[in-house]
Amino acid sequence: MHKVCAILPMMIKRLVVIFSISVLCFLSFFFGRYIGDRGVGIALNHTQLMISFHHLQEYKKIKHAIESGCTDLAQTRLDYRIDTEKMLMAGFLQDAANESAVDYIELRDEKLISELKEHEADRNKTWDFPDCDENRAALSP
User: Fold this and answer.
1) Under a CB-based contact definition with an 8 Å cutoff, are residues 93 and 85 in contact?
2) Closest by Cα among 28, 121, 135 to 77
3) What is the distance of C-alpha 81 from the center of its chain?
């Protein structure tokens, strides 16, 4: 009986150490996950900010072209933006589409999904933007 009493405190110490290590591992996992998720969220927000900034710059250029009477330039810029967005969306849908993304698009534009699935992206395509002065000269009598 004396041997059992001597072993019991040692077993309790081992169990406490094992439990403490398990709790520490558990807490470090969730802390790491929190930090990782936070980093992904920050990166996602940063990416969204850059995309929004680029779109805003394009919208300003189109607005300026319209206000300056450069309709050909505005139309070309709009065509360019539409083509670029279609190319990106088509690439996503053709490579890694998921049901929620398809549902999101179909809810807003029923015909776009089939158009994007058949869209062939020409990544070598170049765009020539007409000069605004040439555009105005063509409009004047």
Assistant:
1) no
2) 135
3) 17
Give residue-wise pLDDT tens across range 108-120.
988 888 888 888 7
State the DSSP code for 41: H
Q: Which positions ≥6 away from 122 have C-beta within 8 Å?
A: 87
- Give CA angle at 89 (88, 90), nearest 5°: 95
**pTM, rounded to two decimals:** 0.60
Q: 115, 82 in Cβ contact below 8 A?
A: no
Residues in the chain: 141
In whole angstroms, how far apart are CA 90 and each of 58, 66, 103, 127?
Answer: 21, 29, 15, 19
The residues near 65 (Cβ < 8 Å, ≥ 6 apart) are 71, 73, 74, 77, 132
Give 81-92 pLDDT, tens digit per residue: 988 888 888 888
Going by C-alpha positions, the residue among 53, 78, 50, 79 that lies closest to residue 63 is: 78
Residues with Cβ within 8 Å of 80's Cβ and at least 6 positions away in sequence, in order, are 127, 129
77 and 129 in contact (C-beta within 8 Å)? yes
In whole angstroms, what separates CA 32 from the centre of its chain? Answer: 23
- DSSP class of residue 141? -
